[in-house]
Amino acid sequence: MAIAYNTSAITNDLVLSLDAKNPKSYSPNVHPKPLDIYGWWSSGNAATFSRDYTTGVSPAGGVPLLMAVTGNDPYISSYNSPIAPAVSGQTWTVSVWVKASVATTVELYIFGINSANTYVEANGGGVNITTTWTRISRTYTLANINSVYIGTRLDGPGTGGTGVNVWWDGLQVEK
């Protein structure tokens, strides 16, 4: 089943997202904006981004975003772009489907962002992935009293280099 959202289905911070392979996809406070990571095409470092129609449908039911690594520290950035309002003490989880052209390590981050759109706290780190689709996630409780938004960042292999491709799809952020 495809992950999707319909603005008419959003009521009291409840969004219905269906993903047969992700039991957490139906839960309160799922914010719809992160489900479309394609909007991040123009935001990143040391990689080019495109929809990859040649790899088939991802487990999330969509056409995945291809990150073709072109240098060191490739990432898709949104950490200075608030995704949802947040406050200190709230626990958030970010999860996404990912695979790569070779076994490698990718990184997944959650950021607390202040009212000036600058990140003030973060939690993240490396996750080993292979050439098959894997759902990865990170959970973090905001601690900084200046955090008023939540943001995320998806990183390709930390060592960079050319010739590595990473595919992403079905990003979710849950409170």
Key terms for this structure?
six-stranded antiparallel β-sheet; 0% helix; disordered N terminus; 175 residues; Jelly Rolls; mainly beta
Unreliable stretches covering 5 or more consecutive residues:
1-35
CATH class: Mainly Beta
Our estimate of the beta-strand percent is over 45%
Termini separation: 23 Å
* CATH fold-level assignment: Jelly Rolls
* Basic shape: globular
Helix coverage percent of residues? under 10%
**Total beta-strand segments:** 14
On the 0-100 scale, what is the average pLDDT?
A: 76
Annotated CATH architecture? Sandwich
**CATH fourth-tier homologous superfamily:** Galactose-binding domain-like
Helix/strand-derived class? mainly beta
Taken in chain order, the helices and strands follow as: EEEEEEEEEEEEEE
The largest pleated sheet is described as: 6 strands, antiparallel
Number of domains: 1
Tally of separate helices: 0
What integer value in Å does the Rg equal?
A: 15 Å
Ordered list of secondary-structure elements with their pairings:
Elements: E1 14-16, E2 26-28, E3 30-31, E4 44-45, E5 47-51, E6 65-69, E7 75-77, E8 84-85, E9 91-100, E10 104-113, E11 119-129, E12 134-141, E13 149-155, E14 165-174
Antiparallel strand pairs: 1-2, 3-14, 4-7, 5-6, 6-14, 7-13, 8-13, 9-12, 9-14, 10-11, 10-13
Summarize the structure in words.
- The strands form three sheets. Strands 3, 5, 6, 9, 12 and 14 form a six-stranded antiparallel β-sheet that branches. Strands 4, 7, 8, 10, 11 and 13 form a six-stranded antiparallel β-sheet that branches.
- This protein has strands spanning 14-16, 26-28, 30-31, 44-45, 47-51, 65-69, 75-77, 84-85, 91-100, 104-113, 119-129, 134-141, 149-155, 165-174.
- The protein has one domain (33-174): Galactose-binding domain-like (Jelly Rolls, Sandwich), CATH 2.60.120.260.
- The chain is 0% helix and 46% strand.
- The chain is globular.
